[in-house]
Amino acid sequence: MDKKIVGMISSYKGLVQSDWLWNQTPHHFGIWNNIQLLAQSPKPDFLLLYNFLDFQPPLQTGWLHRFQPQLQEFSEPEIQATFRGIPKERIVSLLREPPFEEKLNQRKADYEKAQRYCGYVSGPDDLAPVPDYMPAIWYVGISFQELDRGAIPEKIRPCSWVTSGISRTANHRKRLAFLKLLQDNYLDFDLYGRDLPESANSLGTVANKWNTLAPYYYNLAIENYAENSWYVSEKLWDALLSWCLPIYYGGSAADKLLPPGSFLRLPSLDEKGLTYIQEITASPDAWYAAKEAMAEARQIILHKLNLIHWLSDYVTQFN
Question: How far apart are CA 157 and CA 176, in angstroms?
Answer without folding.
Answer: 23
